[in-house]
Design goal:
Blueprint: E1 3-8, H1 15-31, E2 35-40, H2 45-52, E3 56-59, H3 70-77, H4 87-94, H5 96-106, E4 113-117, H6 118-123, H7 130-137, E5 141-145, E6 155-157, H8 163-171, E7 176-181, E8 185-193, E9 196-197, E10 201-205, H9 213-217, E11 222-225, H10 232-249, E12 254-262, E13 268-274, H11 284-291, H12 296-305
Parallel strand pairs: 1-2, 1-3
Antiparallel strand pairs: 4-7, 5-6, 5-7, 8-9, 8-10, 8-12, 10-11, 12-13
Length: 309
């Protein structure tokens, strides 16, 4: 029996998703016979960790503090082994701009994009560059905050008139935004467990034109197909790209790579990497693991075994 602290909740906009992930993880850890301590992460985290003295911390935090390397750095300072990727990989995955630039440098296909922070718009006149950017990316284009997960803050601008509103919405989630060429096609995800690519999941929204936050987490809003119904060579290519990104960004233990399969060209492009994917009932990592014959409890057991400093 191992004493495991499940870190969940926190102060990010993905708090509710994190709480759901944490509860599922706690239940599995109890079934596996571990001594479980649930910690809703806040200003007293260090005091709680010292008082509870866990052997391992299971990081079920999403978004700010959980996926950006913050809590990982703190756990390393306290010498507490933890689940998931290390500090540097979390930093690279959490910032979509950093991740996409790494992909470009490595020759991994990712949709064309431009990224700006608030300073560029307020002090450097970036707004005057928008017409050239819009001409290069075309419409519709995707506007998203650089540092949010769970599809939070993503807006589709179908025309020039919709771009300013989409930018305002994206900036409300952070100080850096990404304008990205929209790829019309199939929304795929490849989860990786200990360096092994799991079956591909396709997310098919039942009501929305795209896979947004509500579609992702409300049961019944999205139909999931796993394994995705794809030609063998497309499945193999998607898994190959996911493993390349996994290696490139330095991920460990588990992660999820999101891709698009373009309708017109059949080209696969990588959208982003998620260092702490969800563990909710509609999350894609547990779904892919199940398709690979790995039940939820076994998945959690393997993740705990892969904990590190």
């Amino acid at each position: 029996m191992t004493r495991v602290a499940v870190l969940k909740g926190g102060r990010s906009l993905e708090r509710q998703v994190s709480l759901k992930s944490g509860v599922r993880v706690q239940e599995a850890l109890h079934r596996l016979g571990h001594d479980v301590v649930a910690i809703d992460v806040g200003h007293d985290l260090v005091r709680r960790l010292r008082g509870e003295d866990p052997e391992i911390a299971f990081v079920a935090l999403h978004g700010r503090d959980g996926e950006d390397g913050t809590v990982q750095e703190l756990l390393e300072a306290l010498a507490i082994p933890y689940t998931g990727s290390g500090v540097s990989a979390c930093i690279r995955c959490a910032d979509k701009v950093i991740a996409k630039n790494h992909m470009l440098d490595a020759g991994i296909p990712t949709p064309d994009f431009f990224a700006f922070n608030e300073t560029a718009f307020k002090e450097l006149g970036a707004a005057d560059a928008l017409p050239a950017i819009e001409q290069r990316l075309g419409f519709p284009l995707v506007v998203k905050p650089a540092g949010q997960g769970s599809a939070l803050g993503i807006k589709f601008a179908a025309s020039v008139t919709e771009v300013p509103g989409a930018l305002v919405a994206a900036f409300s989630y952070g100080d850096k935004v990404l304008l990205e060429r929209h790829v019309r096609g199939r929304d795929l995800a490849v989860s990786v467990l200990d360096g092994e690519a799991l079956p591909v999941v396709e997310a098919v929204p039942t009501e929305e034109a795209f896979y947004d936050f509500e579609a992702r987490y409300e049961i019944g809003r999205t139909r999931f197909v796993c394994p995705a119904e794809l030609p063998e060579e497309v499945t193999a290519r998607a898994q190959e790209l996911a493993l390349q990104v996994w290696d490139l960004l330095g991920c460990r233990a588990f992660a999820r790579i999101d891709l698009m399969l373009a309708d017109e060209t059949g080209e696969l492009t990588v959208l982003e990497a998620n260092a702490i994917p969800g563990m909710t009932e509609t999350s894609l990592l547990p779904m892919a693991a199940e398709a690979a014959g790995i039940g939820f409890d076994e998945l959690i057991a393997r993740i705990v075994q892969l904990a590190h400093l």
